[in-house]
Amino acid sequence: MKGLLGRKVGMTQVFDVDGNRVPVTVVDVSGNVVVQKKTEDSKDGYNAIKLGFGDIKKLEKEGTEPKWRISQPRAGVFTKLGLDPKRHVKEVRVNPEDLEEYEVGQELTANTFFPGEFIDVTGTTKGRGFTGVMKRHNFRGTKASHGVHEFFRHGGSIGCSAYPARVIKGKKMPGQHGNVRVTVQNLVVQQVLEDDNAVLVRGSVPGPNGGIVLLRSAIKKTHG
């Protein structure tokens, strides 16, 4: 198992060796640093690495010492290791044999993955606010004729009869749409751009352009 944090740049298209057009999502993974290693023999009890991603600028004010634009406890974790603080920190489980390949302070590049590899991508979907049932759940709405008044986009009756005389839990209704953590499994790495330190993932991934995503080895595929 392995992983990288990245920033979704956007979507484009490339052509494979057979001339087929393939839609891909560009993920910038430059700046990944190993912040911590956890082992099953330590107090943590499991094998994992903690990744840091995203540079942070210092607050420079005349007459005062420059400070990082994060809280002192968060900055202290990196300062103790002799590293520049990172804005995003994420933990990735790894196998015991793979854990030996990582060192604290090591910078990870796009070469962590290879073309044709299956990965799982986790991100936060676009937040669309409070939406109705047609936008949120793809309801077809009410017919626009035969005496229907002011109920064209409503969900219709939601209750029950005498029994159980209540609204069933999980009923599809209006509410918050998007802004949730979503993982898309078994996506394929189309290309790895070493010079740009970017990964091209076949298809779309969750989140808006500029959003932070986590790339991990697919857990439902066999890895060689």
CATH second-level architecture: Beta Barrel
Q: Give the full name of the CATH homologous superfamily.
A: Translation factors
Number of domains: 1
CATH C-level class: Mainly Beta
Fraction of residues in helices?
A: under 10%
> Biggest sheet, strands in spatial order?
1-2-13-12-9-14
- Percent of sequence in beta strands: 35-45%
Q: How many DSSP-defined strands?
A: 14
Q: What global shape is seen? A: extended
Distance N terminus to C terminus? 11 Å
Major pleated sheet: 6 strands, antiparallel, barrel
Q: What is the overall pLDDT average?
A: 91
Q: Could you state the order of secondary-structure elements as H and E?
A: EEEEEEHEHEEEHEEEE
Oligomer: single chain
CATH topology name: Elongation Factor Tu (Ef-tu), domain 3
Radius of gyration, rounded?
23 Å
Summed up, the helix count is: 3
Q: Pairing-aware structural class of the strands and helices? A: mainly beta
Which residue ranges are poorly predicted, with pLDDT under 50 across at least 5 consecutive positions? none
Report on the architecture of this protein:
The protein is mainly beta and 224 residues long. It has one domain: Translation factors (Elongation Factor Tu (Ef-tu), domain 3). Strand 1 and strand 2 form a beta hairpin.
List the helices and strands and how they pair.
Blueprint: E1 3-15, E2 21-28, E3 32-38, E4 48-55, E5 58-59, E6 67-68, H1 72-81, E7 86-93, H2 96-99, E8 107-108, E9 118-124, E10 129-131, H3 133-137, E11 175-177, E12 181-193, E13 198-202, E14 212-217
Antiparallel strand pairs: 1-2, 1-14, 2-13, 3-4, 3-8, 4-7, 5-6, 9-12, 9-14, 10-11, 12-13
